[in-house]
Fold this sequence. Notes:
Elements: E1 4-9, H1 15-24, E2 35-38, E3 44-51, E4 55-60, H2 63-74, H3 80-89
Amino acid sequence: xxxxxxxxxxxxxxxxxxxxxxxxxxxxxxxxxxxxxxxxxxxxxxxxxxxxxxxxxxxxxxxxxxxxxxxxxxxxxxxxxxxxxxxxxxxxxxxxx
Length: 97
């Protein structure tokens, strides 16, 4: 079976995806790395492209999650507690998957 290609909500990010972000963007990322598109509701969405062993993903981002991922990258992201911290910071009212 081939790789999956999905757009996912940042609240559903996995530890493998976080590691992929760390590997792909070791010095962080900026607006030039983001992909912007208009969703079915007519809203402009910003997404960060990543690749893992099982698929290619566009991670839909919001301001809170961008700040949390930036903190994860700044601190090295080697501690499992960081992933838990990111999950805790993800807003409950995040948009659809």
